[in-house]
């Protein structure tokens, strides 16, 4: 079945290719990551107007991979924002012959292939649907690529807290897993598991909650959970549902 | 209802403001020469679903049936005295997908911005699956969705040589129902499995008042961000346990209310002292005061130890945070740059709960003790970062970074029931984190780029339980080590100008060792996680009128936890394949075609029904969409699109399967 589907894709691609080859080459279709007719100008030119961003760029995570050569750059300004000659000609300005990856993640996907595929998994943040974008959680020009929107400094989980207040707010009895960060249980870009969980079964909890007491028994907190685990997940109704912390029970029930 | 009225009024206010602005904009026309650009794309869509509509909605983030509205709207106009007005947005009904933006600005003076956005997130109402039951899967017959959005107003002064000041108000909201994974139990014969779906009603809002100030004083850049936040949430959880033999059920309703006021302020200062010396300083202070209530009602309240009628009011929470950091960078000196930084964090949290805990105790009947719970957690952390980057090797950049974090956490918890201490815990935790990263990027020839990264993370948590009155939970772990290694390698080749290909490999391996309190103490490898991810991407532009992109990804994930030879715990194996292809073709100067294809399949279902619940999933998702745009005149473009989506899941008996056809038509007017 899957082989048949792949054959169909290939056939459609080849079909388009054949039709295209027989058509006029004067028709130009610009890729979403390119600017029609523009030429590279180099980072030094960007510095003339965008001094604050370019000067700080060398302190960013992206700058670590930057290679500046005589006539080309790897991971410079134009790698993400498109070639700048036309932008320069019209005197700059927002949206003037410039790609804004903050609105369209296609540029980010050029390098972050795995992330692009994760956003296409069944459970994902709605980046593919256009309701979020990469800069909601990441600061590509910042010293810290993980930062809360508009803030330069933050604590663990502050990025997630922007939208998920209920899950990250303080509680009387804390679940210590939150100290390791939300990503200890969730895959923020996408997962095949509901709620973007790393795993949707007991392995998620048992990785940390383990104890040997009685052979062939899963003992946690000096209590045998063997029969309970057969029923379902640790966070099932009636058990440890308060996975983000509880205000009423130190065992994170309810 | 109130929220609906408020939202409607916000929409009308914004529409009014937009229309007013349009009127104002046009009123300027005769007074001076002005430029206007305007675009509007009305759309109409129909989605036909054969199968599980709820799953389709959750999967595709759209609902079935008719939908329509304005797919895209924008207006840009130059006004008198160099003011510029910009408006844009979209509105699709009935699925509450809106965005309106109004932006009025004058360079070197200031701006005003109003923004409203809302979208709907859908949830499937199906619970778990257990094949041996006479009813293997349940659903709630509910159309669950959350309306998520925000409304903001911002005004700013951007006068050169003066501080840039922005004052704003923002409301974020979530309202509706969402599914939960806290499934209720279903019993048939001697078997009980937790598969009955549950859900939660949510009414959450946050008001944020903000002031941002930025100022450059010579070589020093200063920035202050102030936030005052009022957060309110009211949630109701609905859980149900069913007995298929007797036909009886037990319901558990949990209602929680919580609100807090929080003040945040961050101050940032940085300076490029010379071309090779940079430093920055930051300070965050946060004060949060919250209170709430909790009500849990089990009906009927039986003798089961899990049956509770708990009521808590008030619940009080206070948190203070101080975060201070200092970062610097030196270089490049002979292509060598160094960076380093330190950060100190103090986070103190205090919580108090007063509760009446009604439950049935074996041999005693119903009891309702008055409980007072108290917790205090003081976290002190210190972080250090040191890094180096070298670009002296031709066409190559090398970097290395080390991060360390030492954290001391004092955690005190106590519960008193009818003046008797039933639980008391004082734990002093030392948490040490180390993370080392090494990487490179190289482009030895024009058409080839290599990059790679290796990261080693080590996290150690040592727990010293100074007071622990309860055997076992919750203070039963003495030490935990989490070691993680990540490898990422990537090669990108522009084979010819028209063909670019990338290959990326990632491996993540995490091992968790846990030492817990038993006699003798048990030290086990409690978790082992391994993920291998292969991604391939190709972009081709064989001719100027055609581009083709394709990505393929394969993920092989294995996760194993300590099972002590118990059959109810099974290792998770997750194989996931995904392909995504896009083609764009300019058939003529006026006609463009776009084709998108998505195929993903997971093949990791493990039927462990005999000893527990099945794990993993076997499913296939397809999506193909073809869209055509044709320019009718210089100002009008017609759009037509068709999409076919299919979901098959063998592992839950096919209850979520669907096939869907989506047809879209639209006209784009630009002036």
List SSEs of chain A in N-to-C order: HHHEEHHHHHHHEEH
- Could you list the spans of chain A in which at least 5 consecutive residues all have pLDDT below 50? 16-25
Largest sheet of chain B: 27 strands, mixed
Q: From the helix content, strand content and strand pairing of chain A, which structural class follows? A: mainly alpha
Poorly predicted runs of chain B: 1-6, 8-33
Give the proportion of residues in helices of chain A.
25-40%
Please give the oligomerization state of what you see: heterodimer
Structural shape of chain B: globular
Distance between the termini of chain B: 40 Å
Fraction in helix of chain B: under 10%
Largest sheet of chain A: 2 strands, antiparallel
Strand content of chain A: under 5%
Termini gap of chain A: 45 Å
Could you characterize the architecture of this molecule?
The complex is a heterodimer of chains A (254) and B (671). Chain A has 254 residues and is mainly α. Chain A folds into three domains: 42-99, no CATH class; 114-200, no CATH class; 202-254, no CATH class. Chain A has helices at residues 2-21, 43-47, 51-57, 77-81, 85-89, 106-111, 113-118, 158-161, 165-168, 203-206, 226-231, and strands at residues 67-68, 73-74, 219-220, 223-224. In chain A, β3 and β4 form a beta hairpin. The two termini of chain A are 45 Å apart. Mean pLDDT of chain A is 82; it is low at 16-25. By secondary structure, chain B is mainly β. The two termini of chain B are 40 Å apart. The radius of gyration of chain B is 30 Å and the shape is globular. The relative contact order of chain B is 0.08. Chain B has helices spanning 2-27, 53-60, and strands at 36-51, 65-78, 83-93, 97-106, 110-123, 126-129, 137-139, 144-157, 164-188, 191-217, 220-243, 249-274, 277-299, 308-333, 336-361, 365-367, 370-390, 396-417, 420-445, 448-468, 477-496, 499-516, 522-543, 546-561, 572-586, 591-603, 618-631, 636-649, 658-670. In chain B, the strands form two sheets. Chain B has a 27-stranded mixed β-sheet that branches. A two-stranded antiparallel sheet of chain B has the order 6-7. Helix content of chain B is 5%, strand content 75%. Classes of the chains: A mainly alpha (254), B mainly beta (671). At the A-B interface, α1, α3, β1, α7 and β3 of A face β9, β10, β11, β12 and β13 of B.
